[in-house]
Amino acid sequence: MHCFNLKNEEKFDLKHHVERVLGRVGEGDVTVACWEPGQISPYHCHPHATEIYFCFEGGGTMKIPGETVTVIPGSFVVHPPGELHEWNTGPERTLLFRVRYGNDFSGRTREWPSNPDWRPRPEDAEYFKAG
Fold first, then answer.
1. Which residues of 98-123 are buried (b: 16+ CB within 10 A; e: fewer)?
2. In the chain, what are the helix, strand and coil shares in percent, each to the nearest 5?
3. How far apart, in whole angstroms, are the C-alpha atoms of residue 87 and residue 72?
4. Does the residue 115 lie in any domain?
5. Is the pLDDT of residue 71 over 70?
6. How far apart are CA 97 and CA 115, in angstroms?
C-alpha cells in the first residue's frame, strides 16, 4: 500500500513545473505535478503508456487534437497511449495527481511553442514523421 498527502508533497518552481514520482506499482507510477500560473507543457504523447491526471487544486485547460477542455478541482483526464496532449495552467497555482501505466513512459514531443529554447529530438521528429 502507498499513502500520500498531496499537500505535503507539493513543491513549486517559477521557472518550470515540478513533477515528482511518489511511488511505483507494477507497471505504473503515481506522481504529483505542481504548476505555477501560466506554465504550459509541451504538446506531446506517450506512445506506450496511459496517463491519468486528477486536478486537486487550481486548474487550467487540457488540449488534444481538435478539442480543449477546462480542468477544475475534482476533474480528471485520461489520455490513452499515443494521444497528443498539452496542459496549460490557469491563473492559480495548480496541483495535479498523475497515474501512468504501461510498458514505457517515454514521451514524444511534437512542439513546445511556449519554450523558445526547445528543439525537437531526432527520435521525436522521426516518430511524428512516421505517424
1. bbbbbeebeebbbebeeeeeeebeee
2. 10, 50, 40
3. 12
4. yes
5. yes
6. 24
* Domain-embedded: residue 1: no
Query: What average pLDDT does this structure show over 79-97?
Result: 97
Cell reading at 4: 500520500
Which of 124-128's residues contact partners 24+ apart within 8 Å by CB, and which partners? 127/47
Domain membership flag for residue 37? yes
Q: What is the mean pLDDT of residues 61-80?
A: 97
Q: Output the CA torsion 61→32→50→85 (10° steps).
A: 30
Establish if 121 belongs to a structural domain: yes
Question: Among candidates 21, 12, 1, 4, which has minimal Cα distance to 95?
Answer: 12
pLDDT in tens, 25-57: 889 999 999 999 999 999 999 999 999 999 999
pLDDT band at 131 (very low <50, low <70, confident <90, very high): low
CA–CA dist 24, 16 (Å, integer): 24
Range of the domain at 13: 6-130
| 51, three cell numbers | 496517463
